Amino acid sequence: MAGSSTIPVNFPITLDKPTTVVVVRPPRNEREEEEQEEVLVIEGIEVKNDEFVKFDVFINDEDYVIGTGSGAEKTEFAGSFVKVPHKQRQDAGDCGEKLITTKLRLGISELLEGLGVEADDENILVKLVPKCENVHIVIGGIRIEIE
Questions:
Q1: Which residues are CB-neighbours of 145 under 8 A, at least 6 positions away?
Q2: What is the predicted pLDDT for the residue at 77?
Q3: Domain named Polyphenol oxidase C-terminal: which ranges (predicted)?
């Protein structure tokens, strides 16, 4: 984690403010680098069914030092998670707020290449930025898969 001042995160987390996480990249051989996609998986996203929820996902090289501004211009937007509220049926018999759990999958190989992240870099920084206030967002974990 050279140059990173990110505090280690223990999942699950409540996403109530921008949060940066160091994510370990799986080892790949040369053939896999050319033929397969790295996919960022944000799993165990727990939200209330009746709330509008949105958060953005940004990626950066692990060598970016948080708080110094160096390398901030290289941060790339990877995607967003959006959950539109659904009204619950009155006849369902469930008066409480229903929680749903889902995941977000984002292909990031081209982003990493554009950032200049080398194949031998072991980690990347992932920043989650909530766009709604006073909503329930829990993140169960973040990992990278090779597909």
A1: 26, 38, 39, 41
A2: 96
A3: 11-145
